[in-house]
Amino acid sequence: MSLKAYQQTQKKFANPRDIEYRLFAQITSALINSKSFARTDQRLISAVMRNRELWSTLAVDCADASNQLGRELRAQIVSLSLWVSRYTSSVMRENADLDPLIDINRTIMEGLAPRNESAASPAAPVLPGALA
């Protein structure tokens, strides 16, 4: 299936929040699973680069005037994206800890998590590979 056909199918049948949640969960899981790898390990490099790409995509989307999020929230997401990009460089060059990237992603996931109408708080995010 071509990328265009996949994107059209997603637009028709998937809730954007659910898609974003699943993407954050996949990438965050990869970050968690990469914590013990050397900074030269391709699995870690791939995980942090996918995370950077996700945040860069969010920033580009938030910079678009047609984005329906509030201006302040869009500015905060762009700011977080810039921080993620800088911190990712620190991870790769200075062996900085992955936990701050994981923590930010988890916080975003909490906001995106499906809400149970009978509960006051969002469901706890479940990350594959993160269960102990």
Provide a short characterization of the protein structure.
The protein is an all-alpha fold.
Explain the overall architecture.
With 132 residues, this protein is an all-alpha fold. The radius of gyration is 16 Å and the shape is globular. It has one domain (16-112). The chain contains five helices and no strands. The termini are far apart.
H/E element sequence: HHHHH
Give me the secondary-structure category.
mainly alpha
Rg over alpha carbons: 16 Å
Show unreliable segments: 117-126, 128-132
Q: Give average pLDDT, whole number.
A: 85
Residue share in helix: 55-70%
List keywords for this structure.
5 helices, 132 residues, disordered C terminus, globular, mainly alpha
How is the topology of this model organized?
Blueprint lengths: L2 H11 L2 H19 L7 H22 L7 H24 L4 H14 L20
